[in-house]
Amino acid sequence: MTKLQKGFTLLELMIGLAIGLLVVSAATAIFLSAQRSLGFQLGMGDVQQNSNFGLAMLTHDLRHANLNTPSNQKVNNKMVGSGVIFAQENYPSSLHANLIDDVALSQQNLQEDATTGNSDQLVIQFVPQYQVEEASDVDPKDATKKINERLLSNTDMYDCEGNRIGFTTAKKPNEDTQAIRPTMVQRYFIAKLPNSQQGSDGLDRYGLYCDAGHYNAGDSSITGLNNNAQLLMQNIDAFKVLLGVKNPQNNQLRYLTMDEYTDLMSSITEEKNYLQVISLQVSVVARSATNIGADAGLNNKTITLPGTTTAVVFDGDANLNKKYIRQLVTQVVGLRNTLGAS
Predict the structure, then answer these.
(1) What is the mean pLDDT of residues 28-47?
(2) Mean local confidence (pLDDT), 35-43
(3) pTM to 2 decimal places
(4) Which of 156, 174, 340 is nearest to 251 (CA)?
(5) According to the 3-state scheme, what is the secondary structure of the chain?
(6) Does residue 116 register a pLDDT over 70?
(7) What does the radius of gyration of the chain's CA atoms come to, in whole angstroms?
(8) How far, rounded to the nearest angstrom, does the alpha carbon of residue 228 sit from its chain's CA centroid?
(9) Using 50, 70 and 90 to split pLDDT, how confident is the model at 279?
(10) Neighbours of 282 (CB within 10 A)
(11) What residues does 215 pair with on adjacent strands?
(12) pLDDT tens digits, 199-250
């Protein structure tokens, strides 16, 4: 007896094929969605890691502003030694003739960046902490007067370029060696990254740099400034600084741009009425290192820098710019080496 062979009908095969295609399509869609989401999350992680690490370094440096300077612990644009340097009056008079404003002074909207506007430049100064060895030599005519002081340690501090801050000594004829304590000057600014770090998409890439120099009492120029600046944070599109200012009349605190501050101080002549800077609010717009490709539609938020009222517009093709994750990161730094308006 012949056994009948059972199989699928053409209709059943077509139905099975359709179901299989639906399953494969759904799996593919999930895979592509997960891949795009991963690219978005990696971009966000890249931005956050870069900005948080870089700002931690920056804020650590800024807390040294005004340390051991002759400004009587005040920060303003009129006193010699002010920890934030606004004008040549914040430097000793011996330096005034050779100052380059675009390098030696804090200024608003000075540096070209990745936006249609410009970024700020911040310049600070401080005298590194030191320890002085007790002198054993005394004046032979008066045993109560010490005639020598020797530098013992500089607490192993480094400038923002990674150079160890070494104290040098000078010796005059018939005199003991005396310690020389340099005043450190550090400026923070936006600049284009080297060609080797530029991308191939036509969008210019920028970074936040720090440039360090120093001067000693009586020097006519700042040694090392405007030379060999070091990159602190890469892929930074903008840098903004606001000044936390305390009014001595009513003790009210407010944040001002650099231009707003200098305009207000231009009409104040009495030292007791100076508007003292007691904190800094620094902000950066950080960009992801790689684009997020087809998922650019998720990246539609606008960014407004503190102290401004209009959204940031980035240079270059708008559709291409949307393919990069950007995030505004802000940090407030209290200037610990100041008495403010008190």
Answers:
(1) 61
(2) 57
(3) 0.81
(4) 340
(5) CCCCCCCCCHHHHHHHHHHHHHHHHHHHHHHHHHHHHHHHHHHHHHHHHHHHHHHHHHHHHHCCCCCCCCCCCCCCCCCCCCCECCCHHHCCHHHHHHCCHHHHCCEEEEEECCECCEEEEEEEEECCCCEEECCCCEECCEEEEECCCEEEECCCCECCCCCECCCCEECCCCCCCEECCCEEEEEEEEEECCHHHCCCCCCCCEEEEEEEEEECCCCCCCECCCCCCEEEEECEEEEEEEEEEECCCCCCEEEECHHHHHHHHCCCCCHHHCCEEEEEEEEEEEECCCCCHHHHHHCCCCCCCCCCCCCCCECCCHHHHCCCCEEEEEEEEECCCCCCCC
(6) yes
(7) 29
(8) 17
(9) very high
(10) 22
(11) 183
(12) 888 899 999 999 999 999 889 999 999 988 999 988 999 999 999 998 877 8
The pair of structure tokens assigned to 211 is 């440039």
Q: Of how many residues is the chain composed?
A: 342
